[in-house]
């Protein structure tokens, strides 16, 4: 099968910022290479600050790489595309507090010209999306702060799904939720994958979660890719000492 | 064994306009000296509010409506605000989830630590400096002299949490209440912080009330576990019992989540 995504020699250096008095450059990612097949789940794991979110932002072209390429479905990605959507670490920050859920969810439909403003179909579509993530349609008239963390995260997912993406990047989508809700969210991700034929990049620092859902795993340490292999291989015979250390810490 | 903390039938409610929300209901908990207790429960079950009620640092709309609480045998709720102030941050210290919210961003780490030490110990700046380096050493901050001289935002989440723990230790507390101090950290950092807390507890002999929604932490550090649901304690047992034979349905739910994604 063709690759859905190919990442070649991707590097990112954040230029030093004199405002914080530390004008040193930060090498956030260094020469990253990997590929991803359609309908697979790739997990990216590593300690805080290792460059996971930087990788996610590079993949959707929210920031530009210092060098290297991201090739999506055989084309080099130049700008944001509706096919690749992201759900961020903190669901509260990514939902603007003064907008109703209806408007928050419809926004990407207009931006990507999937629907015209005032069209009648929008309402049905939004209700359908909410249903998909297990929420009632009366959520449309409410504001983000009127929901719990888990519900807000579902709304973010519904909004990302509105664009009918092929690749969904999840940047620690459930880390801030309690474990019981996490289990439910994971089931939801797997169900949506089956139903909609999605491919996922799932960023996490919880190895137990990753073990449960990932087909393959990419391990980052201080901006370097230290190991990339099938999930079963990583857990049965980890190669890099750092991988072993991560597995040990999670026991 | 002597009891360090005893809470009986504590209830706390929020009054918002006409509405009353009972965030904590009939909450009963006891803790022996040098014990490590984990208070676990799903999000919104009332863990934080119950712990804040002990020293009355509740949000504005919350009110204690019933119950008793004793610290070292003395009635906490009879204490005046001034007596409580002396207790908070001295014999009872708190560690919270997000240290950056509590560390002052415009002061160097060293200044914040020294200020706290001088406040509690009433010692000279030179002695305070020595004590500060000692504390930073305790929380395993390598090279404390340089780390002390920078600002909170320049440190990683794990390092900030270490500094916050050093602050909590500054007053030689008898009881430390840690509210999800590792939830925002990655697995390696979390494991390091937990191990360090356990070591410190062993060395310094304080009691630790650790709040979390993740039972894997209980497995690693707790003597006993209290399970909370909708404001109430629904089960309390020795740690092994909680995992081997959970009785209450909500304990079972937490153990199930732990079995699924709380451990490898
Ligand atoms: N805009 C920025 N300017 C300068 N440095 C940055 C910027 N964003 C991130 N960094 C630095 O780049 C490195 C990688 O950051 P990144 O956010 O990608 O890490 P992460 O793996 O997502 O961490 P976490 O698990 O804490 O979310 C870190 O050292 C971080 O401080
Ligand atoms: N400032 C507030 N105003 C109104 N209600 C509040 C406030 N703070 C908390 N509550 C309510 O009190 C109840 C208990 O909240 P608490 O913060 O103690 O939960 P928790 O168990 O600590 O949850 P978490 O794991 O999410 O931190 C919840 O139902 C919450 O909605
Ligand atoms: Mg990140
Ligand atoms: Mg809480």
Secondary structure elements and pairings:
The complex is a heterodimer of chains A (251) and B (264).
Chain A: E1 5-14, E2 26-36, E3 41-45, H1 52-59, E4 67-72, E5 75-76, E6 84-87, H2 101-111, H3 121-132, H4 149-161, E7 167-171, H5 179-196, E8 199-204, H6 207-213, E9 216-221, E10 224-230, H7 231-236, H8 241-249
Parallel strand pairs in A: 3-8, 3-9, 6-7, 7-8
Antiparallel strand pairs in A: 1-2, 1-4, 4-5, 9-10
Helix pairs in contact in A: 2-4, 3-4
Chain B: E1 3-16, E2 19-32, E3 36-41, H1 47-54, E4 62-71, E5 74-75, H2 81-87, E6 92-95, H3 99-102, H4 109-121, H5 125-138, H6 144-147, H7 157-169, E7 175-179, H8 187-204, E8 207-212, H9 215-221, E9 224-229, E10 232-238, H10 239-244, H11 249-262
Parallel strand pairs in B: 3-8, 3-9, 6-7, 7-8
Antiparallel strand pairs in B: 1-2, 1-4, 4-5, 9-10
Helix pairs in contact in B: 4-5, 5-7
Residues 14, 26, 28, 46, 48-54 of chain A line the site of one adenosine-5'-triphosphate.
